[in-house]
Amino acid sequence: MRITAVTCVKNEGPFLLEWIAFHRLLGVTDFLFYSNDCSDGTDTMLDALAERGLVQHLPNPAEGRNYQMEALKDARKQDCVINADWVWVADVDEFLNIHVGDHTIPALIEACGNPQTISLTFQFFANDDVETYVDKPVIEQFTRSHNPDLWCGEAAIEVKSLVRHDFPLQYYGAHRPFFKGKLPGKQRPSWTDGSGRAVPHRFLVAANPRRIRKFPAAGARAFATLNHYALRSLDSYLVKNDRGDVNRENRAFDDTYWRERNDPAWKDTSIMRYAADLKQEIANLCKDKVIADLHKASVKAHIAKRDELLKQPEYQAMQTQLRAASKLPPQEEAMLRDLGLIELDAAQ
Q1: pLDDT by residue (tens digit) across 136-145?
Q2: 18 CB contacts (<8 Å, ≥6 apart)?
Q3: What is the DSSP letter of 198?
Q4: Residue 136's closest CA among 331, 344, 279, 332?
Q5: What whole-number percentage of the chain has pLDDT above 90?
Q6: Contact present, 71 and 171 (Cβ < 8 Å)
Q7: Which of 4, 54, 106, 142 is the Cys-Cys partner for 30 at CB 3.0 to 4.6 Å?
Q8: Closest listed residue to residue 141, CA positions, set 155, 152, 154, 131
Q9: Which residues contact 250 (CB under 8 A, 6 or more apart)?
Q10: CA distances in angstroms from 331 to 12, 34, 335, 337, listed in the order given
């Protein structure tokens, strides 16, 4: 089975080898990376990996800010996507945790009955009060998340999707594929959640623009969970903020994104089933001295960027604010306060 993973990256150098190694364990055979404006060696490492036939690396073709959608449009023209049996569109902070069979993507596909699409539900993993960046697998460091069936007071949670080659594709979205709206009912694709259940009809046909990338999470992860490590360490989150928005001088920092993903109510270590094999796979990649040295250089650049940012008052204030932020998502905190279940001071 040929499985192609497609992803967009910017300054993800320290995390590339773990993500590639992990997905090789899942059965991914081909990797298509699009990069833009990297300053930490991400593009250099991807070029080296491409020279060794381990990935395909292209500059992001986007001329504006719509990087992901432009890359996905271009991906449809690439041989590794055209010739794939399945395409997996995901980010480098997302890890597909498969609970069935031998814990690979083929096992998941079999468990779900080989549909044309499988949409896997996110579970957002908290920062776990990890402040300092260290060069070790992300999946080992962060083990707590929100209640899997509820996120920010919502029962519907976002998904990412595995897409079979014969899906009647109009275009790939970042979270799900789309087919033409006028496709007759009998020609609509077979489509399941991560428990092999048919996805809700309104999600299938994208009936509600506000719900095109999510559906109720309860019972949707029997066969697989999509672990999302959007925060990682506090150090890495500061660097991530700089990557996305360089100029923060004289502007207030909004901690909503952090708080929405930093709910540590639930402990889940199931992904550790991959830990030993992951370390070995990373070690195998690092047997190549060039790859190992490029990884070390990206780690050094990541730490140097953190140190540079923390010399700035704006980032010092951001760090202080995030350390003190409530671990209740804002929506949940507001709901509890409206119900009289918490006082304002207790939530701080």
Answers
A1: 999 999 999 9
A2: 137, 138, 139, 278, 282
A3: B
A4: 279
A5: 86
A6: no
A7: 4
A8: 131
A9: none
A10: 30, 34, 6, 10
Q: How far apart are CA 92 and CA 88, in angstroms?
A: 12
Q: Which tokens go with 63?
A: 């001329």
For the record, the structure tokens of 200 come out as: 């809700």
Only one residue has tokens 């969970």, namely 225
Q: Which residue has the tokens 């095109």?
A: 212
Cα gap 232→296, rounded to integer Å: 19
Q: Which of 59, 56, 179 is nearest to 117 (CA)?
A: 179
Q: Is the pLDDT of residue 268 over 60?
A: yes
User: pLDDT, tens digit, for every residue of 309-332?
Assistant: 999 999 999 999 999 999 999 988
Q: Please tell me the distance from the alpha carbon of residue 152 to that of residue 154, in angstroms, as a whole number.
A: 5
Confidence of residue 210 (pLDDT cuts 50, 70, 90): confident
Separation of alpha carbons 330 and 151, rounded Å: 11
224/174 Cα distance (integer angstroms): 19
For residue 344, the model assigns a pLDDT of 55
* pTM, to two decimals: 0.94
